[in-house]
From TrEMBL:
Belongs to the GMC oxidoreductase family. This is Gluconate 2-dehydrogenase (Acceptor). It comes from Brevibacillus borstelensis AK1. Residues 439-554 form the Glucose-methanol-choline oxidoreductase C-terminal domain. InterPro entries: FAD/NAD-bd_sf (IPR036188), GMC_OxRdtase_N (IPR000172), GMC_OxRtase_C (IPR007867).
Length: 573
């Protein structure tokens, strides 16, 4: 039997970026909040001298234990879904800060086109341009409406970026709060080559601080040391924006946050119209606890947000046969296998140094920044060179045809260890009626709850986009004059085994119509007005940038909506 606690005003499920931002905003406004995090607590002291590639990058120290809870996957409904037993395609974070602690810090606002993708596509090309079965839809909010919240996130995180407005990205109301990161020789080569082709390169906006910074909440952080241990690692300097060193301390300082780690939420309680609280398990003692609340905010990772709603029977589950229902709809990933690799016999680049968001990019082929009239795909991708740090175990670039062992392999490995540059595309994944999330009928987690099932594969849309962008990357690499060059542009079926990106989106999508979306523009559920579901689960499709910037902006808007709801109640739109 569950232990029942006294009722609280707000309970937040998951303390990563979304949960941390909402906790900070609510507690500053005087609202009492319980924050539940199923993993352990963290601080910068946990990472002092922890540059252990084997422990963190290859044995996934900061990730969820897949032996207790995982997902199942299949490419289509004719296949039997099987559990993901080892990490590959994406990484599920665990612990305070969530993916916000182990991310790289690469920052890019989704484009104005993204938020009105269906309307803008039809306006420019006509409705026939949208393939049958592709379920793109507008988000119920515009870029201009969301822009102030992007700005607020950037000031909180101290995003480093160029002062000059790039013409290929959404307009900013203010400059970035800190200057861009250093430009390495590899970045300069890429940017010079892109300019020769009349593109518009820029230094990637970064959540790795370029200089000391004090944010509007009074949080002071040190500058990045370019140590190359960002992705899959916590930052020992606090230079990488992370909920644990930015928003969560602000919430704790107010005295209004009751932060409970090792608290795994297993159910949202509700009466069919409103939530009444949550049930969680203390993962150390095994005790089950009921926490009643006036308002429930779901801020866990994309896949867990969807799974909790489905297992709690809150919201209408998506039916791929009819296209009706909303929970589990429009799952999307990201198209990023197109790349150009250059091997330079006469140059070394010190690529062992770097930072998670150190790099340069062009957005000339992202969104609808180029004419799609004669192309067999919609949207696009950014093309980027990033110098995130070539760590020794995972990095071993050699030209094709090199033996996989022996003397030649060793010689080529040593020769090109710091003489290889890669231009990668990161493209939009658009939704289809037959791509979705639901509960697996066979497999369960350690608590006996059904696992979440992913049904997803690459489409011709993705293959065409990938091929086109890989060719553009190859053209830029050719201008960089490598000794040898390889372009990867072919895509087979989606394979969950190799790592690709932890950029899963959708499943609890936002919109203006309750029949086609699960939440409104404040991320308030249409079917339960006192439940807000915040995170990349709200994305109606995936774009060409990393999702964190847009998650951060939506979180600040959701926090504003929650405060309005506490005062007035009812639907906010």
């Amino acid at each position: 039997m569950s232990k029942k606690l006294p009722k609280v005003p707000v309970v937040i499920v998951g303390m990563g970026w979304a949960g941390g931002i909402i906790a900070s905003e609510l507690t500053k406004a005087g609202v009492k909040v319980v924050g539940l995090e199923r993993g352990k607590g963290r601080s910068t002291s946990d990472y002092y001298m922890a540059h252990d590639e084997l422990r963190y990058a290859l044995r996934y120290e900061m990730m969820q234990d897949l032996s207790k809870e995982t997902v199942t996957f299949r490419n289509n409904e004719k296949m039997r879904a099987l559990p993901m037993r080892t990490y590959g395609s994406f990484l599920l974070g665990d612990g305070l800060g969530g993916a916000g602690s182990h991310w790289n810090g690469q920052y890019g606002r989704f484009l104005p086109y993204d938020f009105e993708i269906r309307s803008k596509t039809i306006e420019r090309y006509g409705e026939k341009k949208i393939p049958k079965g592709m379920t793109i839809q507008d988000w119920g909010i515009t870029y201009d409406e969301l822009e102030p919240y992007f700005d607020k996130y950037e000031k909180m995180a101290g995003i480093s970026g160029e002062a000059e407005q790039n013409p290929m990205v959404g307009k900013r109301s203010n400059p970035f709060p800190t200057p861009p990161m250093k430009v390495t020789p590899g970045m300069k080569m890429f940017m010079d080559a892109a300019k020769k082709l009349n593109y518009h390169p820029y230094v990637i906006p970064s959540a790795n601080l370029s200089e000391m910074y004090k944010n509007p909440d009074g949080i002071e952080r040190a500058a990045c040391q370019y140590c190359a241990f960002c992705e899959r690692f916590g930052c020992e300097y606090g230079a990488k924006a992370d909920p644990v060193v930015t928003v969560i301390p602000v919430a704790e300082k107010t005295g209004n946050l009751d932060l409970r780690t090792h608290s795994n939420v297993t159910k949202i309680l509700h009466d069919g119209k409103k939530a009444t609280g949550v049930v969680y398990v203390n993962t150390i003692t095994g005790e089950e606890i009921e926490q009643p609340a006036d308002l429930v905010v779901m801020t866990s990772y994309v896949l867990n947000n969807v799974r909790l709603l489905l297992t709690s029977k809150l919201g209408k589950p998506y039916d791929p046969a009819s296209g009706k229902g909303v929970i589990g709809k429009n799952y999307a990933y990201q198209v990023n296998s197109g790349k150009a690799v250059g091997f330079f016999d006469d140059k070394e680049f010190n690529t062992f140094m770097g930072a998670g968001a150190l790099g340069a990019e062009i957005s000339d082929f992202n969104g609808d920044n180029f004419d799609h009239s004669n192309l067999n795909f919609l949207h696009g991708a950014g093309i980027r060179f990033t110098q995130t740090g070539a760590r020794p175990i995972a990095t071993n670039p050699v030209p094709k045809g090199t033996p996989s062992w022996g003397k030649d392999f060793k010689q080529q490995s040593l020769k090109y260890a710091n003489s290889t540059l890669t231009l990668a595309s990161q493209g939009a994944s658009l939704p289809w009626q037959h791509h979705y999330l639901d509960l697996d009928p066979t497999y369960k987690d350690a608590y006996g709850t059904p696992l979440l099932r992913i049904t997803f594969d690459w489409e011709d849309q993705d293959r065409e986009l990938n091929k086109y962008l890989a060719e553009r990357a190859g053209e830029i690499m050719k201008e960089m004059n490598p000794t040898k060059m390889e372009v990867s542009k072919e895509m087979k079926s989606y394979n969950i085994t190799p790592y690709q990106s932890t950029h899963n989106t959708g499943g609890v999508i936002m919109g203006a119509d309750p029949s086609t979306s699960a939440v409104n523009s404040y991320l308030q559920m249409w079917d339960a007005e006192n439940v807000f579901v915040v995170g990349a689960s709200a994305f109606a499709h995936n774009g060409g940038y990393n999702p964190t910037a847009t998650v951060g902006a939506l979180s600040y808007r959701a926090a504003e909506g929650i405060l309005k709801y506490i005062k007035q109640g009812g639907s906010l739109v």
